[in-house]
Amino acid sequence: MMDIVLLGAPGAGKGTQAELLREWLPIPRVSSGDLFRAALEAGTPLGLKAKSYMDRGDLVPDQITIEMVADRLARPDCKDGVIFDGFPRTVAQAQALDRLLSTMGRQIDLAVYIRVSEQTLLERLGGRWTCRAHGHVYHRLYNPEQVPGICDIDGSELYQREDDTPETQLRRIQVYLDQTAPLREHYLKKGILVEIDGEQDIMAVQGDLRAAVRQSV
Questions:
Q1: Which long-range contacts (CB under 8 A, 24 or more apart) does 170-173 make?
Q2: Model confidence over 107-120: pLDDT tens digits?
Q3: Based on CB atoms within 10 Å of each CB, which residue in 1, 92, 97, 189 is the most buried?
């Protein structure tokens, strides 16, 4: 059993690395952003509350986030561990997660901080576009579509989500620096924090991540 937290600013590549890691271990990836969007699509009260914060680029209040994560951890596929992507985002959430896992006889075994410069973050975040039909993601620099504005897979229109615009991205990075960065200190004190250079190519980052997992076992 292993519970892992991936840390890093928006655009650091946590989602991509979590998916690659999930295929290797395998344990499920638990993303607070995915949980929020699923709850919104289902029209749940928690999802509607979360949307107003996400659209502004603000952090969703801890109570809403923790309730969603607790529901996810109660599912059978999480019994052998999970990869947390985008959660926790504050020290208070990390402490709540510690308490939640403790009631299950578990704890965070490894926290990995994916380090990326602010300039690179803005380049990555500003070029992201999503297809309307099924949410396929493209990037004008790193993964461009073949026909401008059209999804290669299903032919639907590509659009830029409200939380992908440059203005929102700048705010997201500032929110991260102000409220999320102290998580590094939280996990450093526990002796489980490892830092990885997130400006390498994707598979190099994944190689460092897997090495960190092996060393923590």
A1: 170/122, 171/56, 171/57, 171/58, 172/9, 172/10, 172/57, 172/125, 173/9, 173/10, 173/11, 173/118, 173/121, 173/122, 173/125
A2: 999 999 999 998 88
A3: 97
Note the pLDDT tens digit of each residue in 77-126: 999 999 999 889 889 999 999 999 999 999 999 999 999 998 888 888 87
Q: Which residues pair with 4 in a beta bridge?
A: 83, 110
Out of 56, 161, 171, 210, pick the active-site residue.
Answer: 161
Q: Is 214 a catalytic residue?
A: no
Domain definitions of the chain by residue range: 4-116+179-216
Topology of domain 4-116+179-216, CATH: Rossmann fold (3.40.50)
- Measured between alpha carbons, how far is 18 from 28 in angstroms, rounded to an integer? 9
Tell me the whole-structure pTM to 2 decimals. 0.80
Task: Return the residue matching tokens 């309730």.
Answer: 67
